[in-house]
Design goal:
Elements: E1 5-11, H1 16-25, E2 32-38, E3 49-52, E4 55-58, E5 62-71, H2 76-87, E6 95-101, H3 115-118
Antiparallel strand pairs: 1-5, 1-6, 2-5, 3-4
Helix pairs in contact: 1-2
Length: 119
Amino acid sequence: MAEMNLVTIIFNPDKFTELKKALNEIGVTGMTVTHVEGCGVQHGQKTSVGYYRGVATDISLLPKTKVEVVVSEVPVQKVVDAAMEVLKSDEIGAGKIFVSEIKNIWRIRTGEKDVEALK
């Protein structure tokens, strides 16, 4: 069975278009994108309440984008390298990349499993 990996990339939202283009260029054909909030070393913003679209919001967490891609045919290191090239920054909070092994995948509609479910 082919190796399958989940690559999760969490980064500043302003780099999304550039990351999406770089991943498409190396053959990544699908992704899940989630708009999330979080903090790491930078511990969020110092003000604890801000306004987003007119609603008071706790802003101790910073807006981030999370992209998840499952790869089997594109080498994981190629995905990591493409993301690092686009997202690399000397700024704290530039993001993180996580790689996890995937044991099984099923396509709900057809019941196809693993690599066949990704096609």
